[in-house]
Design brief:
Shape: globular
Distance between the termini: 47 Å
Oligomer: single chain
Low-confidence stretches: 1-19, 288-293, 846-852
Mean pLDDT: 90
Structural class: alpha+beta
Radius of gyration: 32 Å
Strand content: 5-15%
Number of domains: 3
Length: 852
């Protein structure tokens, strides 16, 4: 009996047949996986993915350290007032007074008011970031692939292949968290799309609405746009298939439900997108209604295009030096490669070759086009067509970002590939063809990597464009000699020769590494095809190899060196002695005075915003009027020093500067070398003027303010003719404004004036929300001195208030709330009806039995 059992486990063939092993996948250790129940297999797979996440991010979770990239530190400094306001009042913060003299907070810190399902990972984020979202990424990819293949282990392989792709780790290190979150929710959106295609009914549309709304709420519309492209290619393939096979009615119904879901999703995200649309029109990306609003310049948009030969990094991680100072590709710089690994790519190729399914063809076409899009300016004739004519294509930059969705697509295709690799054909001849196809793909991918390895010095020069000239210039500049000096040329040559050797070594090492993993994958496939191991062992082995491969490359970037020795991001914000001095002067009190810090470029230095109301900051979508102020008013065009009259007008009491300059008094000398200068002529946050000039356009207003004779304490410039008689503000006049209260959303003054005058408020003009009232009665806010606000105040004593009441926010919350209640309520109702319909026959059957 024991002997028969032993023989039954061996691979056997029918008489006269060869090449097709017949394996009993249910006996002994071979059937270990298949003997588990379906629910148990799901639990095992999901627990494994959770363990992967916790283990990979262990340096963050268990070390007391945190990711503190420069972008995140800058964000935290900029968001300080908004976070503090929310914690103190429980209200949603809308206006940030501490950055760029005040701006809407929608793209800084804008909590979502209406709860949706994505609040679950958002709550977890406070205690277990980034696993809070990464586990949703892995689970979403797993469930998507299981839905498409009904293969648990293929789902795990695809989830690991996507989740550990190097780019995701680079995003975390760089602090691009919203992009990471959007990519984490990507599998759920694709799953909802796939479900809607397969189950064309109302519930599908509602689930699609939920998934799309969650993805949009991640706050990175660029990734949503790229996923829409991918799904668009898939949809086109499905449409062609529906026409060919007579399924047009069902396909049309599915499409209709997804259109409904899209409309509902857009309503569900009215907050934050309605106020964002208001805001966009007044930013540097909107130009207040210009014909090309939102469009980017071609050269700016095409920055960070992926080079043709740089696509090799999908297979060989350090083919172009990795990231940082060792990178030698065509991009200005990069943090690291878009590495997915040789095993994922060979399985994806196998799927495209062998699997005849619309989803595979749709993903394959998407991968092809997205790779072309990632080339950007290096394939200008192609990408220029889309940039000029395809909607919203010109609204996004950094073309290499397309490769993040390519990596996602390749991971799904790889799951189809492993599912195909373990499938046995019904006839020996078909099975032999299947085996030959697998070995052919192995040979193609392995041979390609081997060719790159052997011909590396012929195919690549391992030198950055213009690198020798740049190095020569740097050496010459540091030694105060000519770049053509023979010694400079020799030193540059020696440097380039040395770094090229290092780059060749890196290429060689990673090429051999990829070859090793391909060889090990090939060995596992060979053992399975000859019947030595069962399918679950093969799939587990390839998953483990992918995990080790991607883990090893990812750890080059997400490691302890990338973490800050603090538990809170704000602990990374440096505090200097001059900060403490300014705090003692009342710098933490909002509405009292502003600070101009010249410790760095005011347009990119956010640190001071953590402590004071700053004229500078860090933001990618500044208000247009403030960008013009920075470009044309802040600095005197003749001296390059800050413009004294403009500093007065902007309530700038202190300047942190490397040294003194005229008109300022030194009040503190810092140990850092910086000096704190006090402006003796600073104007208060709100002040009356005795004279008003009217100009015809904002450009004329800008020109008038650039005039050195302009005196903001006496004269204001507006665009509208005002019926005001000049009433000089002098020692004998009664004209004063006393600040009563100041918060990001409301400011109140007690004012008195002996004649009707214009009250100039040194707050940034933003008409999409700010309202002014005198004694409770609303009055217009006038655009004054190009970027400030003005209010005409009648004679007497009055209370003047300004409150931020953006219509887009209020309307957005209302629409989002109603749409969310409708969608989630409808979804729960449909699930409930389905449950009771399923239970009803069982109950009826039980009653019949009892009656019998």
């Amino acid at each position: 009996m024991a002997q028969r059992t032993k023989r039954s486990k061996k691979a056997t063939a029918k008489p006269g047949q060869t090449g097709r092993p017949v394996i009993n996948e249910e006996e002994g250790w071979r059937g270990l996986w298949m003997r588990l129940s379906e629910s148990t297999r799901h639990v095992v797979c999901l627990l494994f993915l959770l363990a992967v996440s916790l283990a990979f991010f262990a340096p963050i979770h268990f070390s007391g350290r945190t990711l503190a990239a420069g972008d995140i530190v800058n964000w935290r400094a900029t968001a300080a007032d908004l976070i503090e306001y929310e914690e103190a009042t429980g209200e949603e913060p809308l206006w940030a007074p501490n950055a760029f003299a005040g701006m809407p907070g929608y793209k800084i810190y804008y909590p979502l008011v209406v709860p949706q399902i994505d609040d679950v990972p958002r709550l977890l984020r406070r205690v277990i970031w980034p696993t809070s979202h990464f586990i949703f990424l892995l689970a979403g990819a797993y469930l998507l692939i299981f839905f498409l293949t009904k293969n648990n282990l293929a789902g795990v392989l695809g989830a690991v292949g996507y989740g550990l792709t190097t780019y995701l780790h680079l995003l975390l290190v760089a602090g691009h968290n919203s992009k990471f979150v959007a990519l984490a929710f990507a599998p759920w959106l694709v799953l909802a799309f796939a479900y809607a295609l397969k189950k064309p009914k109302l519930l599908s549309g509602l689930l699609f609405a939920i998934a799309l709304a969650v993805h949009l709420r991640a706050g990175h519309e660029q990734i949503t746009y790229y996923l829409a492209f991918l799904l668009g290619f898939w949809w086109l393939v499905e449409a062609i298939g529906a026409v060919r096979h007579g399924r047009l009615k069902s396909f049309g119904v599915a499409t209709s439900w997804m259109v409904l879901g899209t409309v509902l999703a857009l309503l569900m995200v009215a907050q934050p997108f309605l106020p964002l649309l208001e805001y966009k029109e007044y930013t540097i990306r909107g130009s207040a209604g210009a014909a090309d609003a939102g469009a980017l310049d071609w050269s700016y948009a095409m920055s960070w295009s992926q080079g043709f030969s740089e696509l090799v990094t999908l297979l060989i991680a350090d083919a172009f030096g990795g990231g940082g100072s060792t990178y030698w590709g065509p991009k200005p710089f990069t943090a690291g490669p878009h590495y997915v690994g040789g095993i994922v790519i060979l399985l994806a190729i196998l799927a495209v070759w062998r699997v005849r399914r619309n989803v595979v063809w749709g993903l394959a076409i998407g991968v092809f086009f997205m790779i072309l899009f990632s080339l950007g300016e290096h394939l200008a004739w192609f990408n220029r067509l889309f940039f000029d004519y395809f909607p919203l294509f010109d609204a996004f930059r950094v073309p290499e970002t397309w490769l993040s969705v390519v990596a996602f697509s390749l991971a799904i295709l790889a799951a189809f590939g492993i599912n195909e690799a373990v499938r046995r054909e019904p006839s020996p001849e078909q099975d032999r063809r299947q085996t030959r196809a697998i070995y052919t793909v192995l040979g193609i991918v392995g041979g390609f990597v081997l060719l790159l390895f052997l011909a590396r010095s012929t195919l690549f020069d391992f030198e950055r464009p213009n690198e020798r000239q740049e190095i020569s210039y740097q050496i010459a500049q540091s030694n105060n000699v000519s770049p053509t000096d023979p010694r400079v040329t020799q030193a540059a040559e020696q440097y380039v020769t040395r770094v090229k050797e290092e780059r060749v070594d890196g290429f060689t090492s990673d090429a051999l590494r990829t070859l090793l993993f391909i060889a090990l994958a090939g060995l596992a496939l060979f053992l399975y095809r000859r019947g030595s191991i069962p399918a679950w062992v093969l799939q587990s082995a390839l998953t483990l190899l992918i995990l080790i491969d991607l883990w090893g490359v990812g750890r080059r970037y997400l490691n302890e060196d990338a973490l800050a020795p603090v538990s809170q991001i704000e602990d990374q914000i440096q505090t200097y002695d001059f900060d403490r001095f300014l705090i003692e002067q009342g710098g933490e009190e909002r509405g009292k005075f502003r600070v101009l810090s010249l410790e760095g470029n005011p347009q990119t230095t956010a640190r001071p915003s953590y402590y004071f109301e700053s004229l500078g900051g860090y933001h990618g979508a500044k208000l247009r009027v403030y960008q013009d102020f920075l470009d044309h008013l802040l600095l005197d065009s003749a001296t390059g020093l800050p413009n004294e009259q403009i500093l007065d007008m902007m309530n700038t009491r202190y300047v942190v500067s490397p040294g003194p300059f005229p008109g300022m008094e030194l009040v503190f000398q810092s140990e850092t070398g910086f000096a704190v200068l006090e402006n003796p002529d600073v104007l208060p946050r709100a002040f009356f003027v005795g004279q008003v000039e009217t100009v015809q356009s904002p450009d004329e207003m800008l020109t008038r303010l650039q005039d050195s004779a302009f005196e903001p304490s006496q004269t204001a410039v507006v665009l509208e003719e005002l019926a005001l008689t000049p009433a000089p503000v002098d020692s004998g006049a009664m004209a004063a404004a006393e600040l009563v209260s100041y918060s990001p959303h409301e400011i109140e003054w007690n004012v008195r004036t002996d004649a009707p005058r214009l009250l100039v408020v040194s707050e940034v003009y933003y008409p999409a929300g700010w309202k002014a009232r005198i004694d409770g009665e609303e009055v217009p806010i006038l655009r004054t001195n190009y970027l400030l606000r003005g209010v005409v105040v009648p004679e007497g004593e009055h209370t003047v208030t300004m409150s931020f009441e953006p219509r887009g926010h209020r309307l957005g919350v209302l629409i989002s709330g109603l749409a969310t209640a409708l969608v989630y309520g409808g979804t729960l109702l449909l699930f409930g009806l389905a449950y009771f319909r399923k239970r009803k026959p069982e109950k009826t059957g039980e009653e019949t039995t009892e009656a019998a």
